[in-house]
Amino acid sequence: MKKVKLSLETHMWYREPIKNPYYMLYCLFDVVYPPELKLYLSELMNHTHKSEIYLQNTPHIVLLIYSLLRSIIRGSYKILSNSKKYYSIHPMNKSEVSKLMTFLGSLSQEEYLNPYLVFEDVFAKQSVIQLEIDLFEITQFALGDFIEPPSIEVNTSFISINRLIEAC
Fold first, then answer.
1. Please, how many CA atoms are within 13 Å of residue 118, restricted to the half-sphere of its CB?
2. pLDDT tens column, 71-106
3. Can you spell out the DSSP letters for 104-161?
4. For residues 79 and 119, is the Cβ–Cβ distance under 8 A?
5. Which of 110, 126, 130, 152 is deepest in the core (most CB within 10 A)?
6. DSSP structural state of residue 76
């Protein structure tokens, strides 16, 4: 794959820009835990079909969630696209990943053992730009009171972003 120069957009939620996607994930998960981030994304998605506004009294939190999710999308793509620089495989044993853990998540046991497979699958189906557009649409519909629901494509992006969170 061609080397890609892509900003991780960390200055929105971190004090300074970060260039290394692994360090970005380390810093991001100091800010919010992955299950908590998945919960926020699910709540955002639920509010796209409701007439009430998500976190109406604290919209800055919604913008923070949007920034964090956007950084995950960009970091995942950067790891995939610059695979020679960032991809290093440290395989885990199957005994390290319990069957219960794989049952509770949306990834297969092979994907838990090698998250790079998730990145390949997600970005083969959708581009970074499409994921970001759909994430913006989810956020926009969660913050507004719209008559019509968002496009049907946001469902695919919602699932893909959830998988990226789990893979990270």
1. 24
2. 999 999 998 887 666 555 555 555 555 555 555 578
3. HSSS-HHHHH-THHHHHHHHHHS-HHHHHHHHHHHHHHHHS--SSPPPTHHHHHHHHH
4. yes
5. 126
6. H
